[in-house]
Amino acid sequence: MFKELKNKRVLVVGSYRGIGKSIVDNYLNEGSIVYAADIRFDAKKYPKLTKINDHYYRIHVDVRNEKEIIDLAKYMDAHHIVPEIVIHVAGISTLDYMLESKTSDFYRNFDTNTCGFYFVAKYFGRLLVKHHIPGKIIVVDSQSGKNGYRFEASYCGSKHAILGILRVLALEIAKYHINVNAICPGIIETAMKHRERRDAARIRHTTPEAIKKEDISQVPLGRTGQPQDVANIALFLGSHLSDYMTGQAINITGGMTMH
Ligand SMILES: NC(=O)c1ccc[n+]([C@@H]2O[C@H](COP(=O)([O-])OP(=O)(O)OC[C@H]3O[C@@H](n4cnc5c(N)ncnc54)[C@H](O)[C@@H]3O)[C@@H](O)[C@H]2O)c1
Question: Which keywords describe this protein according to UniProt (predicted)?
Fold first, then answer.
């Protein structure tokens, strides 16, 4: 679909499953060279970079660990494989009443979601600037980065913070022709969403099935999203079609969020 994406180097952080995996598949279909990083890729088997084929590599990385991101950026720089498109997808969520919530859960959300994005954008953004690459930095944020939802104080906080960082970075590196944009998905059917429904059902004394029905009823387009819906926007943001966009947060919510 996008000839220009053929052989482009794309780093997808948080790509073992769910939305990240769909983004990897989309770029592989375009003929890009995809570096798929995730904490779930075996650290022993994948100490640095495991070649699956000429276009697909896997990397073990924990985005909470700044040193691992620094090491990965150094490694890719030293091996002349600096990614031109950098996509941060890794995220976690916890659900609870704010007043009952654990402070440790608050930090967990910020460590993975916010600090993870900060590290990836900072160290790979530096490489784009160093090598004069007019690249793209993309983060999968959430409509929880724009709205408040019950039980999601830590998650919403961490996702709102990402958009603040993104807007500053977009301003600062626009002069290098590097675009920095976010995708804000709504309700997407992944393992994370299924676990959230189980947690919400426990808190609200109902069932995950009832919550799913409620979810669907809230979406103007009448269905919840699939990982592919989000991955399509990641392709657009990695292509020349988004060259005149930076600092934006695009909703892909079936109409749930319109600002
Ligand atoms: N599913 C939804 O409804 C939804 C809605 C809005 C936003 N999002 C966001 O989309 C992103 C992907 O979510 P998903 O639904 O695919 O979830 P998921 O749990 O299926 O996938 C998350 C991926 O991130 C990886 N990951 C988690 N912690 C990591 C770490 N410390 N280091 C490296 N990798 C790590 C996981 O191993 C997994 O592969 C998340 O940032 C999430 O907040 C999801």
Answer: Oxidoreductase
- Which of 116, 118, 130 has the alpha carbon at shortest distance from 82? 130
Neighbours of 220 (CB within 10 A): 9
Which atom of ligand 1 has the smallest separation from the CA of 88?
A: 41
CA distance 26 to 190: 17
Q: Phi and psi dihedrals of 226, rounded to 5?
A: -110, 155
Domains of the chain plus CATH, in order, are: 3-186+227-248 (3.40.50.720), 189-224 (no CATH)
Q: What is the mean pLDDT of each run of 10 residues along the chain (259 residues)?
A: 94 98 98 97 77 96 96 95 98 98 98 98 98 98 98 98 98 98 99 98 98 98 98 98 98 98
Question: Which residues are identified as catalytic?
Answer: 155
Pocket test for ligand 1, best of 38, 159, 195 (most atoms within 8 A of CB): 38
Closest atom, ligand 1, to C-alpha of 16? 39
> Is ligand 1 within 6 A of the CB of residue 91?
yes
Q: State in Å: Cα 120 to ligand 1 middle.
A: 15
